Amino acid sequence: MSKELIVLDNLSKIYDGCTTALNEINLSISRGDWTSITGPSGSGKTTLLNMVSCLDKPTSGSIMIGETKINDLNQTELTRFRRENIGLIFQQHYLIPYLSALENVMLPMYYNNNKDESIAIKTLKRVGLGHRLHSIPAKLSGGEQQRVCIARSLINNPRILIADEPTGNLDQKNGRVVLNLIKEIHEAGNTILLVTHNSKIAREGDRIVQIIDGKVSMSNMTVIN
Ligand SMILES: Nc1ncnc2c1ncn2[C@@H]1O[C@H](COP(=O)(O)OP(=O)(O)OP(=O)(O)O)[C@@H](O)[C@H]1O
Ligand SMILES: [Mg+2]
Predict the structure, then answer these.
(1) What's the Cα-to-Cα distance from 181 to each of 70, 93, 107, 151, 166, rounded to whole Å?
(2) Are 211 and 197 in contact (CB under 8 A)?
(3) I want to staple 163 with a disulfide (CB 3.0 to 4.6 A). Which of 55, 100, 121, 194 is the partner?
(4) Which residues, including other chains, have CB under 8 Å from residue 78's CB and lie 6 or more apart?
(5) How many other C-beta atoms are found inside a 10 Å radius of the C-beta of residue 51?
């Protein structure tokens, strides 16, 4: 089995034919590594995560995840691939507004024919929301919604966790809860790709990749804690 899990080859994304968000990115991510991605606002970080998580297609270049060339998959295959391999924590929450916290977390389980409510309850308790199981998103604070989203992303034990500013909306205490969870997931052998503006959080990773103007400006930096 190859050491590299995610390989981006000359990856470009041009929006609307004029905005170059990613400009020929070459990047390899090793299995089990935690890669932190930093860079100024608008530099292409979320675009990069959207490509790797199969939410959007590149304009050119290729993405390999394990043995799978993502470019070759159709929409149904992409959705299934993502569901089986990737956990996502977004900058926005995308919770289903009419479902409770518990139902939102259970949603990805249904797709995998798993209806074991106790796992979802346990995961919500892990993110400190045992007392909000039956609240709909509108009755939750922004940080609580973020934590529901995190619980949902962890529910199927993804081997790749992709997180866009996962602690951005959280206070210090809940930020630490979430960070500790991500550390646990990493220590269990999973691969983490995490975007953050916070240099302290970035340094929790094995490696920091800086994106500036859609290009990798600094990579392969080994983090010394
Ligand atoms: N759907 C879209 N359509 C057109 N342009 C877009 C779209 N999404 C992003 N862009 C543009 O692409 C560039 C990169 O955006 P991206 O969201 O990847 O930045 P970012 O590094 O995540 O920024 P931030 O730190 O503010 O989240 C920006 O110039 C942005 O305006
Ligand atoms: Mg972003």
Answers:
(1) 28, 18, 20, 10, 11
(2) no
(3) 194
(4) 54, 70
(5) 25
DSSP letter, residue 156:
T
Nearest bound ligand to the CA of residue 25: 1
pLDDT in tens, 50-75: 999 988 899 999 999 999 999 889 99
Task: Indicate the top mutation candidate among 19, 25, 92, 217 to test ligand 1's pocket, ranked by most ligand atoms within 8 A of CB.
Answer: 19
Note down the domain range covering 140.
4-222
CATH number of the domain that residue 69 is part of: 3.40.50.300
Number of domains in the chain: 1
Distance of CA 4 to the CA centre of its chain: 18
Q: Provide the residues around ligand 2 (an ion) whose CB is within 5 A.
A: 46
